[in-house]
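[Automated response] Your request has been received and processed.

Submitted sequence:
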Amino acid sequence: MTFATLLYETAGRIARITLNRPERLNAIDEKMPGEIRAAVERANADDGIHVIVLQGAGRGFCSGYDLKAFAEAEGENPGVQSMPWDPMVDYRFMKQCTDDFFSLWRSYKPVICKVHGYAVAGGSDIALCADIVIMAEDAKIGYPPARVWGCPTTAMWVFRIGAEKAKRMLLTGDLVDGRTAKEMGLVYDAVPAAALDAAVDALAQRMAGVPKNQLMMQKLMINQAYENMGLGTTQMIATLFDGITRHSPEGMWFKAYSEEHGFHEAVRLRDSGEPIPGSKR
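Generated structure:
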């Protein structure tokens, strides 16, 4: 199988999935979610593989959806419809992306995510679907579109760090570094950038010695507890809300402003802390 947005490699009992759009900071395009799922399925079908490592090429793990393309492009695209909009068309598209990312969570083989640089917006969605996340201490993670134009569809923030800390992150859209993410319990570990590869490799090798059936049973048991807490229902609401954020008055302002002034200027204004122009909400 040939992938357009990622690399798939194996060595011994470990498979490596590398997001490979470094020129765009591994931003998520329309192909990447399905290719992540296909790579995970490939690893699960390989009896020689016990553990999956997920990582990013270049300067960071993943900068989120390629919103520059979606926001700056005039007219309709998969991210924005003309008004009046059909929420179920949007839901169908975004739920497919959510399900593709969640193939990491559903994988019968454990997934370790290695984060350097940035894991922001949709990139944090991907990272938090992994079983264990190890960050570089100076890497950044967060969901800035929580301010305008987004809701994290995988809903893993609340399930990882609880209601209060999830609110602190999603009611501000702030980024935190690896050290803070570890202190919050969002990720398993944060290490100096120079030690990141070694830390991930050591944990992957440790897991790789465990029989596949043992790994599968432990993971299924733990995941089922989250399913019993209503993870699937929460994701349905979050994915629907994500579409609403892009078609709210502020969401439509963000799209129009991006078309006129560019995505980066719209993001700067969104994240400045100032009220959205023209919004009384």
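Summary generated for your ticket: The CA atoms of residues 24 and 66 lie 8 Å apart. The chain has a mean pLDDT of 95.
If you did not submit this request, please reply to this message.
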